[in-house]
Amino acid sequence: MARFSRLCDLITSSLLPFIESEPSPLNKESEKQLLLSLSRVSKEIRQWWNDLDPKLDQESLANAIVVHSCPVFLEQPFDGDCKCLTNIVSIMVAFLGFDNGYVQHLAGNTLFAISNTLISFGSIWIMFVQFIWITLETAISNICRNSSSCTATDKLYEIENLSTDSRSFIALLQLRRANLSWQMVAGLLRLLRNILKFLKLDNNELLEKYIDLATPFVQNMPWDCLSKINVGEKNNGLSGLEAILPGTLLQLFCSLVGQNDLEGVENDLLERQDLFCKLCDLVPKLLSYFCNQLEADNKLISQYLRHKMLMLMIRLSFLMQWQSSQLALWLQLLKQHFQDLLYKSVSHSDVECEISLEESPFWSSFSDAVNLQIPCTQHLQRQVIFLFFKLCFVLIHISGENSQQCSCAEEPSLLNYKLPVCGDHCCHIGLLEISEWLQRCGHIEMFDRVYLLKSSTSFALSFLQLYMEEDDMLFDMLLQLLDVPFIALQGESDEKELSPAETIRCAFSSIFNPVHLFHLLLLLLHYDHLVLVDYLISKDIGVNCVQYLLRCLRVIFQSWQIFVDYTIPKNLINESYHKRQRISTDEDNLRGEEQPSSSVSFVTDEYIPRKHKSRSLSNSVNLHPFGNAKECILSLKKTLEDLHRKDLFPYNPKPLLRSFSRFQAFCKQQEITSRK
């Protein structure tokens, strides 16, 4: 291939001399020359990529005859283009092992540019990525083999099922004295993640090939050995990399289970189920591997790793076909590694609301060590509780299907209101975890009905307030609560004697009744329908907001009188709660322009920009909750109709407008009934 031969010649002539000499620290002059060479090579490769004609006949290009000879000398010869490829990769990855951050950075960028250039030649690109994975596995294997922390059994790990070309490639790495170090591992992980993100951006058909190559790595890595390597062990090359390595690895795994995978086609998800299962099985080992870092003195590093670990677990939780034993294990892992967050109070008095437009989940002021942790901790708390609820709900659902196999399925009348548990796989494990969480986080007395009625609204309001700062997690949680299998039980047994299991179900349903939560959500928004418009047009949360409104309105129609009669205690109305609002920009946001924040806002001449503020809810509550909710929803209906008529709404809102029209009809009927 003409272009491929040019690439091989360019890298060989420009960069090979820098790794042929004996390894030694770079002096200022040699460092300067190497950086200039890497920069020039990277720029030239990117130029080739930009000039690549997609309409060019690739077959004729591949068959072009070019006088070219690679400087590769091994007993085992390579076949065809594989010879050039092994030469290119073996030279470039060697620079990732240099103890120089600038060299590593430029080498990584150059390898990424090479990947983009080769991607048009499918089979060669696949071979390129395969060699990158092999280099990563070889480096980790070499580190474990040379570590005094690993036992002889741990060191038995070897890369299996390699082709002849792959084994020759490993021999070439050794011949060129590549430093198979932690620095190289970190650089390769970053490179592989960048390649993956590029494939997902272009929705490239090679993505599945990449996944196929990644799956054996996830399965075969010696995680037990890695977890034993002491980050302080001399000569292991980990100095300064204690957090970079786990963070980079988690970034790659989170990209492998990307957000768009949650909305993927069913056939694609089935094809990747093997990868998801392997990552799910890997979670306990990863938590063991990262245990020291998760509890590190450096809180910023610790919280970032916790965030990425929870993100991975949450994404996997949507994709797994769960067994009860896996769910029980994950619940134990949450309690073991995230107990401080899981059982942290959700009372609104403990929630700080110092929010600015620059806030992200990890925004913080480095000038104030106390306030530094507040946004981070609250974000992690939201993640942990969301995952905890999901695991409990799925476990309750599975246990309900298998309750006949459990000796506790038939509950006798019990003293002391204790929920019976017959073992680790008991059908009551999920309910027991929910009960403990309610008691520890909300001090909820589930078996005292009078106290429960008084405390449930306050706790639900504080719970919603916790999630108001992150719109995406707010609607994820609201949708999840709509799926709770025992919400309908609440109104069925106000008078009859309940078993402990039924009491827990009814207590949870009383607190998180979807009709009540809808009222409280509107209350926290101060019944401002424009905030709901912001939610609906957001490219990140718009779909979830629509789903929530449609589903919640269906529940309201089925429980209309509960919706109409709902009241909020005056002491809660008089307390101050935070309202999340946004400054609007312009109508371009409706056309999908990229925004720096997690949601998209807009303004027309009719709407006044709004700012973040906190005020008393009593300023917004001038009517009965039903009257406020009615006014808000009907105002939202009118605004959506206006935007739709002007073709300013980003998608078809007709299903939502039909639900609003039905809501309006219910309200008119309520007026007629009230007059009688």
The count of domains is: 4
Low-confidence blocks of residues:
59-66, 349-359, 362-372, 409-417, 582-615
Mean pLDDT: 77
Treating each run of at least 4 consecutive H or I residues as one helix, how many helices?
29
| Main sheet characteristics | 2 strands, antiparallel
Task: Write down the overall geometry.
Answer: elongated
Terminal CA distance: 87 Å
Protein structure class: mainly alpha
DSSP strand content:
under 5%
Q: Largest beta sheet: what is the strand line-up?
A: 1-2
**Care to count the β-strands?**
2
In quaternary terms, these chains amount to single chain
State the helical fraction: 55-70%
- Rg estimate, integer Å: 29 Å
Transmembrane segments: 111-136
InterPro entries: Lines_C, Protein_Lines
Domain Protein Lines C-terminal: 630-663
Pfam family, one: LINES_C
Care to describe what's here?
The structure is a single chain. The chain has helices spanning 2-20, 28-51, 58-62, 81-96, 101-118, 122-145, 164-175, 182-202, 207-220, 223-228, 244-256, 266-271, 273-289, 291-294, 299-319, 324-337, 339-342, 374-401, 429-442, 449-467, 471-482, 500-511, 514-524, 529-537, 542-558, 560-565, 570-573, 625-645, 654-675, and strands at residues 576-579, 613-616. It is 61% helix and 1% strand. Helix 4 packs across helix 7 (164-175) and helix 19 packs across helix 22 (500-511). A two-stranded antiparallel ribbon has the order 1-2. By secondary structure, it is mostly helical.
